[in-house]
Amino acid sequence: MIRLEFIIAACLAALISCTSTPSTANLPIYGNKIFEENDTIYHTIEDFRLVDQDSSWVTNATFNNQVYVSDFFFTSCPTICPKMKQQMLRVYEKFENNDQVAILSHTIDPTHDTVAVLKDYATKLGIKSSKWKFVTGDQDYIYDLGEKSYMVMADEDPNAAGGFIHSGAFLLVDKDRRIRGVYDGTVDEQVDVLLTDIDKLLKEYEPTN
Amino acid sequence: MNLLTKVVALFAFVLLFASCGGSSETSQNEEKPSSRDEIRLKQYMVQGAKIYSTYCANCHQDDGKGLAALYPPLAGSDYLMENFARAACIIKNGQAKEIVVNGVTYSQLMPGNPITNLEVAEVLTYVANSWGNEGGLMGVKDIDKWIDACVEE
């Protein structure tokens, strides 16, 4: 009996200690780091230039002073993309009026997903603001960007449904182009974490005191 | 005497089956399925739910509401409920043409699904009887007939 009480007490203590952990810790910084004498160089998103659904150029400068969530998809995708887009809508809706947050969705099927197709897709999804950019460009260039900068896989595969294999990941990128979070964009709970992580990340940029 | 009991029992048995095999209108008791169709409906619903989550839920979503103006809803969908034969064909063969569902135009391509006619029956039963839809059981014999009569799009 005493043992049982002890176990319950221990469990409670563990629970309390977990739930009351201060959540002020900064988000991790992903990717390889290079340590120099007095400095650490982090993995960052390389310079890129793509075109969005409104025919505007999108580069790193587009997200100046913004954090953004990035993903890879294609409009004719019959598998995970609709789920990803439904989840990304949650990000869009939560931060619709916050200028510090943007969304960047890359098509991995630029042959089909022209500017006009992306515009139509965005409109039908109900996207009114330029906060959510759907971008297209050269196919190899986009795959390269996905692999090297965002560390996600995207490739053509005639055996996969829709002709492409790709990751359903959402990447959270900070104002210094660094990846601060990776989430499964097809899972509700993972996107819950992303939503709170965006808040946390924005807090890092608030002036202290 | 013994024989009479047997005859009465047999008669009662036959009567029971005859009354049960009829229409599914006689559902006085929600707990116990009172007809074979109702049992079959429940089996189809269970199997249909699995097929739905594998082949359909990505676009039409778990709640059957679809996604914005990209993927049409199945929940409360006039297009679905007004023609189940057409729905069976679309499930099996996909659809490329533009359609209007509850007043909204949808043009996203729907791929066909590599499933058997029985599975079409199960998943069609599921979508026709979920989220407030009440279409009843879609028997596999009807599905066979409908699929054979599908018009090439």
Task: Describe what is shown at a glance.
The complex is a heterodimer of chains A (209) and B (153). Helix content of chain A is 34%, strand content 22%.
The secondary structure category of chain B is mainly alpha
Q: What top-tier CATH class of the largest domain in chain B fits best?
A: Mainly Alpha
- Overall spatial form of chain B: elongated
Which shape of chain A, going by the Cα principal axes? globular
Average pLDDT of chain A, rounded to a whole number, is 87
Number of helices of chain A: 5
Discrete helix count of chain B: 7
Strand order of the largest sheet of chain A: 7-6-5-10-11
CATH topology of chain A: Glutaredoxin
Average pLDDT confidence of chain B is 85
What do these coordinates show?
The complex is a heterodimer of chains A (209) and B (153). By secondary structure, chain A is of the alpha+beta class. Chain A has a single domain, classed as 3-Layer(aba) Sandwich (Glutaredoxin), CATH 3.40.30. In chain A, 34% of the residues lie in helices and 22% in strands. Chain A has a 5-stranded mixed sheet with strand order 7-6-5-10-11. In chain A, strands 1-2 form a two-stranded antiparallel ribbon. The radius of gyration of chain A is 20 Å and the shape is globular. About 4% of the residues of chain A have low confidence. Chain B has 153 residues and is mainly α. Chain B folds into 2 domains: 32 residues; 112 residues, Cytochrome c-like domain (Cytochrome Bc1 Complex, Chain D, domain 2, Orthogonal Bundle). Chain B contains 7 helices and 2 strands; from the N terminus they run H-H-H-H-H-E-E-H-H. Chain B has a two-stranded antiparallel sheet with strand order 1-2. In chain B, helix 2 crosses helix 6 and helix 6 crosses helix 7. The longest helix of chain B has 20 residues. The chains are: A alpha+beta (209), B mainly alpha (153). Chains A and B meet through helix 2 and helix 3 of A and helix 3 of B.
